[in-house]
Amino acid sequence: MHPKVTKRSSASRRRERGGREADRLSALPDALLHHIMLFLKAWEVVRTCVLARRWRHLWTSVPCLDLRVREDDHGNTPEDFPEFVRLLFLHREASARLDTLRLRSSNVDSAHDEEDSRLWIRTAIKLGARVIHLVGHRRDWIRGSSLAQLEHASLVSSHLKILKLSYALLHGNILGQLSSYLPSLEELELKDCFISAREISSASLKILIMFKCDIFVNLSVAAPNLVLLRCISPITQAPSFQNMGSLVTGTIILYDYAFSDIFYKDFSKDELSETTDEDDDNQRYKTRHEFGVPPEGYGLGYNDDYNYGSDIDSDDDNKIEGGHNILQSLSNATSLELLADAGEVILNRELKSCPSFSNLKMLSLGEWCMDAEFNALIFFLQHSPNLEKLFLELKLKFNTRKSLDSGVKPQGRSFACKHLWMVNIKCSEDDARVHKLAHLFRANGIPDEKIFVSYLGGKKMTEFWWED
């Protein structure tokens, strides 16, 4: 008789061959496994050594160390955190270069302090770190105390290319001497920082991002090789700019109310209390209307039929400091985003002395350009001869009948944009200014088929009739 044949599972056959399940993850190359470890905190990376023999020494050569500790990490982080970090650096593979260090300036329960973080930064720089991200605490940012601070001695490196600082206090010459102690720095990102330094100066800097920074002094930015600038919602005063002839892309988002004491009275602390470490990495630079709305009635005068903002020469507006040469510094850019509310002071002030934007191909403008006669908009169109794409966002709502009756007279307001092939207008429903804009563009040779309209809130306009 033939022996009885029984069907064996694939798992049984693997156990007979090797006594264990196949480990496909461990078959991946080191570079890919190290990439997976980028999403883990440092103590989690070390714990991978128990997964399999293949993982035993991988943590010693991981190119990124994330030492950020949060309040809810108590049960997961090593008990003696400074000693853990000391051993972590001590046992790293000697030939392994450290690419990125992420850390908090201190821990809320004193597991480590500012001196520990400075030591770890110096150690990372000795290991050739290319990227350093130092994070303070949002609670301290609200109080304006115990923020992350830097020392010149901690930041001297010919390798460092990217420096990201969040909830940090920057004073003295710490930013003015970047060319001296960080000669290879290419990207500087300042998020929710307190700045009392008077200058940001770097010949190597190519990318500068300033997000909701509180600027206490007349800050000047000098970066002749800067390619990308994002200055988003500065507080107290806006920075001034000089020597930025290499700029390609610029984003400026301003709120006049943030330059006044009223900003601090209405500032929502609850909004800042829900941040996680991941928010610092994944912060997306939102469009202007996602940052919040100024207190009702502030910065929005009532001097005309359209409720367009205050007189630029008023006493309140003259109190707004900084922001000098903002538009002058952007004049060589090919792509610009200039967003602000109606009646905004700095951009309107700087517009009076701004030259042509001969390289500009893509332009985004906000409500500040939508005065009753579209003067600022027409200025840009007259000084941007090579413009190809124009984006307009009309934020305010108006009475349709009143807007139509008190019409703009676009005739004679000529401009020549021979390369303009798309005008994208975003507005609220029944905003009659859309029709005024259509007349303006039509009178200057831009046909209706090049004008696209969508409603605020994501609703698309499927059919639109241009009124004569």
From TrEMBL:
It comes from the Eukaryota. This is F-box domain-containing protein. PANTHER family: OS08G0281600 PROTEIN, OS11G0201299 PROTEIN. Gene3D superfamilies: 1.20.1280.50, Ribonuclease Inhibitor (3.80.10.10). Residues 1-22 are annotated as: Disordered. It comes from Urochloa decumbens. Coiled coil: none annotated. Residues 1-17 have a biased composition (Basic residues). It holds the Pfam family F-box. Residues 25-64 form the F-box domain.
